[in-house]
Amino acid sequence: MPQEQLSLQQNLNPISSALDANQLALLQQATSSYSSLQLAWASGYLAAKSESGQNAKLSPAPAAVAAKILTILYASQTGNAKGVASKLAQSAKAAGISVVLKNTADYKAKSIKNETHLLIVASTNGEGEAPDDAIEFHEFLLGKKAPKLPNLSYSVLALGDSSYEFFCQTGKDFDERLKALGAKQVTPRIDCDVDYDSDSESWTLNIVESLKEELTQTDAPLAAVVALPTAGAQSQYNKQNPYAAEFSLSQKITGRDSAKDVRHIEIDLGKSGLTYQVGDALGVWFENDANLVADLITMLKLTGEEKVKLKVDGANQVFTLTDALTTELEITQTAPAFVEFWAKISGNKELTAIAADKNTAREYAGEHQIIDVVKAAKTEIDPQFFVEALRKITPRLYSIASSQAEVEEEVHLTVGLVSFDANGEPRSGGASGFLANRLEDGQQVHVFVEHNDNFRLPSDNNTPVIMIGPGTGVAPFRAFMQQREADEASGDNWMFFGDQTFTQDFLYQVEWQNYLKSGLLTRMDVAFSRDQAQKIYVQDRLKENASEVYAWLERGAHLYICGDANRMAKDVHQTLLDIIAEQGNLSSEQAEQYLKDLRSNKRYQKDVY
Predict the structure, then answer these.
(1) Which residue intervals of the chain bear CATH 2.40.30.10?
(2) Do residues 297 and 331 touch, judged by C-beta distance below 8 A?
(3) I want to staple 586 with a disulfide (CB 3.0 to 4.6 A). Which of 39, 53, 135, 590 is the partner?
(4) pLDDT over 70 at 44, yes or no
C-alpha cells in the first residue's frame, strides 16, 4: 500500500470497524489515484465530517490548504540522502510545517504538477548516474512528458564525491530541469562533498526558515492529519551515534601467494540491540595509522602538539594536531581540492600543472595520499590552515556478509585490504588497514547499520535468485545463503563468482561447496581470470549460460549484482542486455525496457561501489 494511503488508513482506523469489506474496498479504490496533497485534503475532510456528521459539505480544497504541504523527496543509494531528508522533515515538522516524506521510487512522478513546494535531496551513483530508486523519476523529469511547473517552489540538496568527474550530477540534473520547467528556486542548490554534515545542516536551517512563514499559515487542521511515514522502532545507534562494538576476528581468506589480501572480519554487537537484514551495510568509523600520522607531521616540520580547532557536532573543539589527524581528518583519501590547495600553497610547478586540469587532478588524487602530495612539494604551513584544507573522516560502508538468523549478535564483513607502494613506501587504506592490521581481538570499533532497501531477497521464498558477486562482492550473497537456509527457502539459487586464481582467491570456497552438496545452492559458475592464457570473467560465464539465465528470468528469478561499479557492473549489465535481446528475440531498446521493468519490480538490484 502506498505511504499516502497507509497514512490515510491509519487515520481511519478508529472508524474502519464501522465499514464492511465492500465499503472499505470502495474507499481504497476511490483514493488509489490521489496525490499526496489530495490524500491530505481528503483526510482533513473526513476528519471534519466525523465531527459534523452527514451535513458536512464536500467542497474543493482551498488554495490556502494546498500551500501548506511540503513534499520532500530523497534519491538515495546508500542511505545518506535518506538520512538528510529525514532530518529535514523533522526540522520542518518542528517548525509547524505539514510534511510528506517520500523515496522517489514511491512517488508518482506525474503528481509533481500538483505540488506547490518541493525539496529534493539527491545522491549521485557512480559516474553521474541517478541512484537505482530514482532512475524512473529522473527519466520522467528529464523526458518529454514532464509538465510545466510554474506554480512550484523548490530547492535541491545534492550529495556527491568530488573525487568523481560528475560531482553531484543527479542533483544538478534535478535542479536544472525544474528550473527549465518554470519552477522557482526557494534557495540555490547546494553541492555537498563526502563530509556533508555541516553543509546539509546549514541548508536545512536556511530552507526551513525560508518556508516557515508561508507554510505555517493555517486555515484547516491539516498539520494534525498529515504525518511523516514511520518504519517502526529505530535504533539509538546511527552514523552520528555509533555503537562501540567488540572486534572479534580478522582472518585472511586469500592464499599466501595471492596478489590480494582479503579478510573475513567478525564483530560482536553484544547487547546493543542492533539488528540488520541481509543486504544491509555496516558503517565503520576508523582511526588513521599512528605511524602515518607521525610521518605526515614530520614532513610538515611540526611537532604534533600544536593546537587546532575543528567543528565537531556543530561546535568548535580544540585538538592537538596529532589527535586531529588521527581521529578527525581524512589523510588516506585525497580530494582533488587538496591537490589544488597544496599546489597554490607550495607554488610547485609540476603540482600546479596537475591541478590545472581537473581530470588529471582527480587521477593524481586517487593515486596519492595526503602525505605523498605534501612530500611532492614541501613547504611550511600553519597547522590550523592545514587542517582546514582536509576533509573530515567519513565512515566506510561494507556489505554485511552474514545473517543474524545464523550468527545472532555478530556481524561479519569481507574486507579487501587496500595496499600499494608510493615511491617505495608502503601505503594502506584507512578503514581496511584499521580492520585488517591495527585492531586486535577485544578492542572497540565504532559501528552502525546502514539499511539498504534496494538490495533485498524476494519476500516469496519460492522465488529463484541469481547472484553475481566477484571478489569481495561475494559478501552479501554469503548472507543471502545463510538467510535462505534459515528460512528453509525452496527457491533455486544460482551463484556466479570470479576472482584471479582458483587456489588462492576462491573466497569462502568450503562454504559454497557445502551449500552445493546440501542442495541449497542449485548451481555455481566460477571464473578465475588468471588460471589460463585468456582471461575469463563472470560476464563470460553468463554468456556461456545465456539460455539458462534467460529461462530463470522468465520464470521470475530475482537478479543481484555486487562489486566493482566502474567495470564489472557495467560489463555485466551489457552482457545481460545482450542475453535478453538474443534469447528473447528482442531489439536493443526492448532489452533495455526488459531490464528497466525488472528493476522497477525490484527484480534487478545492485550493490556496487
Answers:
(1) 243-286+395-450
(2) no
(3) 590
(4) no
Distance from the first to the final alpha carbon of the chain: 31
Return the CATH superfamily for domain 290-388: NADPH-cytochrome p450 Reductase; Chain A, domain 3 (1.20.990.10)
Beta bridge partners of 155: 119
| Cα three-residue angle 109-115-118, rounded to 5 degrees | 85
Q: Is the domain covering 465-608 a CATH 3.40.50.170 domain?
A: no
- SS3 for 227-265 is CCCCCCCCCCCCCCCCEEEEEEEEEECCCCCCCCCEEEE
Cell of 586: 528482442
Strand spans (E) along 124-242? 153-159, 184-185, 190-192
Q: Which parts of 487-587 fold into alpha helices (H)? A: 502-505, 509-518, 538-544, 546-554, 568-583
Considering the chain, what is the average pLDDT of its residues?
88
Classify residue 519 as exposed, middle or buried by CB count within 10 Å of its CB (0-12, 13-18, 19+): exposed
CA atoms 580, 607, 459, 506: torsion sign: positive
Residue 175 neighbours by CB distance under 10 Å: 24
d(CA 453, CA 81): 13
Backbone angles phi, psi at 497, to 5 degrees: -125, 145
Residue 579's CB: how many other CB atoms inside 10 A? 21
Instruction: Tell me which of 16-30, 203-217, 288-302 is least confident.
Output: 16-30
Which CATH code for domain 243-286+395-450? 2.40.30.10
Residue 441: name the closest of 250, 243, 244, 242 by CA.
250
